[in-house]
Amino acid sequence: MDFGAQWTNAANAVVALVTTYGLRVIGAIVILIVGWMASGLVYRTVVRLCERSTHIDRTVGLFLANGARYTALVFTFVAVMTTFGIATTSFVAVLGALGIAIGLALQGTLSNLAAGIMLVVFRPFHIGDRIETGGVGGTICEVNLFYTEIDGDDNARIIIPNGKLWGEIVRVPTRHGTARLELHFQRPANDDIGAAIGRLRELIERDKRVLRIADIGVESLANDNYTLAAHLWVSRQDATAVRFDLNRTVKEEFERRPPANTPRAAVERRAG
Questions:
Q1: pTM (2 d.p.)
Q2: SS3 of residue 133 by DSSP
Q3: Does residue 267 have a pLDDT over 60?
Q4: Torsion angle, alpha carbons of 253, 254, 255, 257, to 10
Q5: Which CATH number is 176-271's, of 3.30.70.100, 3.60.20.10, 3.30.70.141, 1.10.3660.10?
Q6: What residues pair up with 150 in beta bridges, in sequence order?
Q7: What mean pLDDT comes out for the span 234-263?
Q8: Domain 2-105: which CATH class?
Q9: 124-174, which class in CATH?
Q10: According to the model, what pLDDT value does residue 74 have?
Q11: Which residues of 130-161 are buried (b: 16+ CB within 10 A; e: fewer)?
């Protein structure tokens, strides 16, 4: 009888545990699933609402959406703890103590979070801008709470911690619609400088994409050659094409029509 009574008591205890904690586990799982789905729904809703407004930059919209998603996940975690009977006040106290310890251990991560907030508040650049920093460059795709994603020139995704973007020098070449090009051409030392500068200016002025010629002159001298430099302003979207086209045009023109006092011209005069 004693043996049967022990088995009965053990079975009752197991049933009580399963009834008590099993339902709590199931409830916690349901809360996790609902909370995870709700966080995604909140994220998408905030993104859509921000996209409808012309006064909210996409960078700010994505930042707010991420903040709302993480807030929903925190409330989900608190609800799961409450399901197991952990008092919210005790949880907050424990969370505060853990926050201090985690803050000391993750100073770099928290600095990235603070930098992300500063980037969103002051917005030194926007999604779609090209930035160059730390030896890398690319187009900004997304600014998150802790890091920023850019697509490099080789179409590789580059992840940059926000602390690097806020604490380092960042070049934003796409902020303005125009760009200054610097072109360099080598000429032989016996080439007439005035004639070469005049021909170079004429060739550049023929290109209608050139908005303004800043200056043209001799940048450096060597024993057997000198370097002409031309600084000109063009539309940023035309900058690469103008550089390639002018480099080819100037080279072909100088080879086709050498100045009158070059050796090739002298040879042609004697042959004639």
A1: 0.56
A2: strand
A3: no
A4: 80
A5: 3.30.70.100
A6: 140, 158
A7: 84
A8: mainly alpha
A9: mainly beta
A10: 81
A11: bbebeeeebbbeebebbbbbbeeeeeeeeebb
